[in-house]
Amino acid sequence: MSDSTMASREIRLASRPVGEPGPENFELVEVAVPQPRDGQILVRNTWMSVDPYMRGRMDDAESYMPPFEIGKALEGSAIGEVVASNVASIPVGATVSHFLGWREHAVLDAAEATVVDTGIARPQDYLGALGTTGLTAYLAVTEIAPVRQGDVVFVSAAAGAVGSVAGQLARKFGAARVIGSAGGPEKGKKLVEDFGFDAAVDYRAGSLTEQLAAAAPEGIDVYVDNVGGDHLGAALDAMKVHGRIALVGMISGYNATEPLPGPSNIYAAATKRLTLRGVLVSDHFHRFPEYIGKAAGWLADGTLHTEETVLEGIEQAPAAFFGVLGGANTGKMLVRLAS
C-alpha cells in the first residue's frame, strides 16, 4: 500500500437475498483509501445508520433509489470527522453528514457532505431525530397527514426511529390522544412512560383491530403507517370520516418473495373519504433547515425524547440491519464505527 493510501474496511453486498437477508449476503473487505483530490474530503466515519428502506435496495428491482451493486460497498447515512480536505469551506476537524456509510472511511466530493453543528446536538442526533428519520416524522404529521387540534393519532412501529418521534410531534401539534403499536409489553410500557403516548397496542398479543377499537373507541383521525399489512387494515377499520393516513413504510412486506395483497377492507378509504398519501423524505430535503431549527431546541429542552440501540464496529453493521428489520431496536438503530 503506497504512502498516498490508507487501510480501511467496508461492507459489500455479496449476493442478493431471496426473502429474509442473512450474513451470506454481506462481505467485510479491507480496502485502500486514497487521499482526496481537488474538491474532495476524506472522512473518518464515526457513526452510521441502518434503515428499513435498505432492504429494497438489496433487490435488483426498479424503485425510487437504484439497487445496491453486488461486489460494491453499500450506502447509507453516516456522520464523521474530516481528516483531510482539499476544500476551503470544509476544514479538517469538521463534523459532516453524508451518504457513504457502511465503511470506516469515505472520500467524497464536498458537495456530497453537509457540515453539522455539534454545538446544538450530538453528532449521532443528525442520523436520528435531526436526520432523515426525524424529518420524515415531522413531514408525516405536519404536511402528509396533518395533525389538528384535538385529533386522535395512531402510529405503528411506534418504538422505532420514525414512530417514536412522530408520536411526540403529533402531541406537540395538537393531538388529544396518541396511540402506538409495538411488539411486546416492555416496548409498550416504554411508549407510555418514556415517549409520552397515551396507550400502546401489542401486535403480538391478539387482534390489532380489537385492541385499537378499545384504545380509541370513537375512532382515529390520523394514522402514521410504518408497517402496512394488518396494521393498515386495523387502521382503516378505526379511521373516522375524512381521516388522514401518512404512508411512510410497510416493513411487514419487505422480505416478501411474492406480491402481497392489499387490505381486504380497502374500500373503507372510499366510504370514509380518507386521504392516503405517501412520503419520501428525499423529496423534502429543502425542509431540513426549518426542521432542525425547531427540533434542536426540542432536544435541548427535553421535550423531544430519543433513544438509540447501538452496536459497535463495522463488522456489526449487518447484524444491526437484521435487527432493525426484525424490530429489535428501540429508537434509532446505529452502528458506532469510531469514538
TrEMBL record:
Residues 22-335 form the Enoyl reductase (ER) domain. The keyword ATP-binding does not apply. Keywords: Oxidoreductase. GO terms for molecular function: oxidoreductase activity, acting on the CH-CH group of donors, NAD or NADP as acceptor. The keyword Aminoacyl-tRNA synthetase does not apply. PANTHER family: PROSTAGLANDIN REDUCTASE, PROSTAGLANDIN REDUCTASE 1. This is NADP-dependent oxidoreductase.
